């Protein structure tokens, strides 16, 4: 089994459009949307959810005001300042500052603090016209996206083995944070989609450097190259110096937006044979 991860460094570079295009070029794959904070591959795949699972992580702390006597011990022990005294002299939890260490629960002499496992995030196995899609949804303000990415990647690999499918294709998250690191670790190849804006190029360099640290074979695609051809030339020189294969330079086209509006990928929607040939070349190089 071969696992390929598509990254971009920043959002809006066209990463999901390229991933979705690969879905029409790869005859058999399990797809995994690693962008669990803001997943959007489902907008093109139109998946039907077959399984829904809670992602259990961390602890949610609750303080019973009836039991709290306002001794302030928990407030003094909490190094994250997640507990503060309210106007009634009772301890009050600030959930977005709580790290779930449970020291307050263990220390409260009144047994006023209790905890429960956080189950606000979910992951899914869905069916689609391209095959299975493993994806996730995080609750508002929830964290630990890196662990969730690791989990759904594992589920994708297990599903591919179970179905005897050769490829797992990951639509990675933007940035170089925990979820991106979790997307790169153990993958067989990384395809970086580079947008020709200064911010896009800056962030792409960071993700290229990140992939290099993991010694993962890395390829590149320049998207919307004709919006800034001088920067495109600069990017090409950089990639050549770093010995990173540039597989395609794709021009800006409103068809990418129109395709998403029609819940299709660009291979399905476009009549531009030259563009399709470029994407075929990308798939042939990384598969």
Task: Briefly summarize what is shown.
The protein is α/β, with parallel strands linked by helices and 287 residues long. It is built from 11 helices and 11 strands.
Secondary structure layout:
Layout: E1 2-7, H1 15-25, E2 29-33, H2 42-45, E3 48-63, H3 73-77, E4 83-85, E5 91-93, H4 103-107, E6 113-128, E7 131-137, H5 145-163, E8 167-171, H6 178-184, E9 189-195, H7 198-213, E10 218-223, H8 229-241, E11 246-250, H9 255-261, H10 266-269, H11 273-286
Parallel strand pairs: 1-8, 1-9, 2-7, 2-8, 9-10, 10-11
Antiparallel strand pairs: 3-6, 4-5, 6-7
Helix pairs in contact: 5-6
Task: Please give the largest β-sheet.
Answer: 9 strands, mixed
H and E string = EHEHEHEEHEEHEHEHEHEHHH
The N- to C-terminal Cα distance equals 11 Å
* Number of E strands: 11
Residue windows where pLDDT falls under 50 for at least 5 positions:
none
Percentage of β-strand residues: 25-35%
Gross morphology is elongated
Percent in helix = 25-40%
Structural class: alpha/beta
Radius of gyration: 23 Å
Number of helices: 11
Mean pLDDT: 95
Question: How are the strands of the biggest sheet laid out side by side?
Answer: 3-6-7-2-8-1-9-10-11
């Amino acid at each position: 089994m071969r696992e390929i991860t598509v990254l971009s460094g920043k959002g809006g570079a066209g990463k999901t459009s390229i991933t979705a295009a690969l879905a029409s070029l790869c005859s058999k794959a399990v797809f995994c949307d690693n962008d669990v904070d803001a997943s959007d591959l489902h907008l093109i795949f139109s998946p039907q959810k077959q399984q829904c699972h809670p992602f259990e992580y961390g602890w949610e702390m609750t303080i019973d005001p009836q039991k709290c006597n306002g001794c302030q011990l928990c407030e003094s022990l909490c190094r994250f300042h997640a507990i503060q005294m309210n106007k009634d002299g009772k301890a009050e939890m600030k959930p977005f500052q709580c790290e779930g260490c449970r020291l307050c629960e263990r220390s409260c002499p009144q047994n006023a603090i209790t905890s429960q496992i956080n189950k606000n995030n979910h992951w899914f196995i869905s069916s689609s016209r391209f095959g299975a899609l493993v994806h996730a949804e995080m609750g508002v303000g929830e964290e630990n996206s890196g662990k969730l990415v690791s989990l759904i990647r594992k589920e994708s690999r297990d599903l591919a083995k179970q179905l005897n499918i050769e490829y797992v294709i990951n639509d990675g998250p933007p940035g170089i944070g925990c979820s991106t690191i979790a997307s790169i670790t153990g993958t067989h190849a990384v395809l970086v989609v580079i947008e020709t804006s200064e911010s896009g190029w800056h962030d792409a360099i960071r993700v290229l450097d990140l992939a290099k640290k993991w010694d993962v074979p890395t390829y590149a695609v320049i998207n919307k190259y004709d919006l800034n051809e001088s920067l495109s030339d600069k990017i090409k020189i950089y990639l050549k110096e770093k010995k990173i294969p540039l597989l395609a330079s794709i021009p800006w086209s409103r068809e990418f937006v129109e395709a998403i509006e029609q819940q299709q990928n660009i291979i399905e929607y476009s009549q531009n044979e030259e563009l399709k040939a470029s994407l075929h070349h990308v798939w042939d190089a990384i598969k």
